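Lecture 7 notes: from sequence to structure.
We start with the chain below.
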Amino acid sequence: MSWLRFSAGRPAASASSENDSACPAGEELVLRFDEQGHVSFCSMSLLKRLSVDVMHTPDSLTLYLARPAAWLNGPPSQWPTQLPTLVFRGRDQGELHLRGWLRQDGVGWYMQLLDVSDLVQEVQQGEAREELLSQAWRLSARLTGMSALQLDSACRDWLEALAVRLRVPWSGLYLASSKGLRLYQSLALNTGRAPLVPDERELEAQLAESLGSGPPGRGRALFGAHSSVWAVPCERGGDVEAWLVLAEFEPSRAVTRLSEQDWQQLLYWFVAPLLQELRIQAQGDEQRRLEVLQQVLGAGWWEYGLTDRYLTLADGLRQQLGLLMAPEKLVMKDWQQQIDPADRELFSLHWNAALEAVAPLNLSLRLHTPDGVRWYRLQGELVGSGRQRRLIGHALEVDDVKQLEDEAAMATARLNSLLETA
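Predicted structure tokens for the same chain:
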């Protein structure tokens, strides 16, 4: 480093007087040793920064250090002249990082030290910041295809990494829904006391109020009844989809400093793909519920392309009609084989009228199934334009309804016959 090159050229202190030899550089950060390596003097400027008793200073350098240094074994003559970083025990349980050089004069040995704690802290914060962003990226790459339980676990791991790095006692991820905010996952560090969890109603009101008070994507400092809260939105298309909420946290006092861009990257790299996976799962759940409902009702969707002239059926409908082994896309000739011969002409009339947009498709007809001939109601209409124009609709089994209608018609006929004979 440049300051080391500059320091190396400084002249050694004069030993002309006791005071000069005791403190070669005045009130700087200086330690003096005898030939055996015992501390014989510590400058007042250094003592004020160390966690030692000023009236009873230790004579062993290792007692000043927060972390041992293996190279300190032996006398000062065996120590390096340009010193690696020494970590001293600072005040308030902090650490003091010092570097410098070792020199010899007529009295003994002395260390001239410089405080590099700010540089070390800056490097450590940069490493912690990079690790936070890297972990968010690594976790996001694993989200694809995860189950709901695995997504919960991955989110908890992410919150734990944030909480440990930022020393946040409580963190939570809130998701927006039609009913307001919903706490998706949270994590509380074991700090020996219960964290001050934000009140959900108060938090939701403050978050809603803060949306119009700052630029999009920026974090908001909120203040609850008992603690400060830092909240960062995850937005898409102008809508806030999620909030990262950190309780008892103030970014300006954080151990790891994150810029506004860092906060946005944290959410973009992890929360955005998490929300995408949750949307895919919700769509899958909705599709499965729809399939179950169609199976119970004996129904299913169908689609006919006016360009390729193929008919596509839902899997449930294909199963009902015994067409699982048939091609996925049916030509009309194959479909008409499923229709009872007595209803084929009626179907053709209604089908052609629907294709020509004369009227939507709406008729009941008999279809062949593995269980015999059953009545189905077909409904559909034209959608799209150009090459995307197609006829879509659904088929619903109405065999039971038709049987009831037939029974009712027969009963009515018998009643009319009785009335006529009477």
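Points to note: The first helix runs from residue 2 to 8. The CA atoms of residues 75 and 140 lie 53 Å apart.
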